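Hello everyone,

My group is preparing for a crystallization screen and wants a predicted model to guide construct design. The compound we'll soak is flavin mononucleotide. Before spending weeks at the bench, it would help to have a computed complex in hand. I've included the protein sequence and the ligand's SMILES below. Output in structure-token form would be ideal because that's what our pipeline reads.
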Amino acid sequence: MPSDDLAARKRRHLDVCLTGPVGYTTRTTGFERYDLPYAALPESDLDSVDTGARFLGKRLRAPLLIGAMTGGAERAATINRNLAIAAQRLGVGMMLGSQRVMLAHPEARASFEVRDVAPDVLLIGNLGAAQLVAGYGVDEARRAVAEVGADALAIHVNPLQEALQEGGDVRWRGVRARLAAVVPEVGAPVLLKEVGHGLTGAIARSVAAVGFAAVDVAGAGGTSWARVEELVRYGSVRRLELVEWGIPTAEALVEVRGALPGTPLVASGGVRTGLDVAKAIALGASVAAIARPLLAPALESADAVEAVLAGVIEELRVAMHLMGVADLSALATTRLRPRVG
Ligand SMILES: Cc1cc2nc3c(=O)[nH]c(=O)nc-3n(C[C@H](O)[C@H](O)[C@H](O)COP(=O)(O)O)c2cc1C
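Reply:
Good plan to model first. Here are the tokens for the complex, ready for your pipeline.
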């Protein structure tokens, strides 16, 4: 695809994500089906609640990642730098958007370079599994990590999005074999992630032997990328059932946790509050990721991104205090209450 087309599509993606109705409307994350156990006698001091986490060998001050969003498009450099500055200040991790554009067009690399402003951040690069099927291999995966100084690489799977995109990648046959060939050779931890339609336990089990260092369930209930593609393509949503398809984030998390008991998990897709983060940890995630709510703030300033994330972290701390849990290991063993009615 010529770079102009790719750049134009990325521009439309950002515009639609900023303005369009891109959230699921008939499906929710499923977090609302659980309550955190409220401890009216907490035996806890708010000030001593510890939200520190470890993920992929790095320490985070809170169990949060900025979700994969962009790079290569106009405005992408501003967005990525503001996200990265906020991540550095708060001690949370950051996922970059797909680096395909950067591999094909080296001039796009600058928009992904954030290490100068985020030297300590857990930084995760990003490539699509469809690109592996189409011919990208170990070299491209290693370049995606090395050229931006990333600590790890996320490989996204997005067949629903691609199927609805005009000219999208619809050849997925052989995808598992490509993952099995490439992932062990990258030389850095590799995560598997969806883009908001979710992974099932069966899918996770089917790639258990590949050697993913972590899995991001990226479930339904937040941003629907099928919806984004319909809005980009037609200006409105034509196929409602397709754009609402997906495994709700909480369900995906429970299923994948059961399928891969030893693999660290990221909970994402519609994570919006500190209470969502707390529920995700209690359901088996190591960290949670938030994407679209940070897009508009990232166009504004690092302060604006920091304000949103700091709010989520503070909610998490208050929630932990009110459950009487002192740290994330205690939160991880907390039993959620199914919400009745
Ligand atoms: C503007 C934007 C661009 C995105 N680009 C990518 C991408 O390049 N690679 C990827 O794996 N996911 C991408 N995503 C998907 C997110 O990482 C995330 O999985 C999804 O948006 C669901 O999370 P949310 O409900 O918090 O937005 C993008 C999301 C947004 C909002």
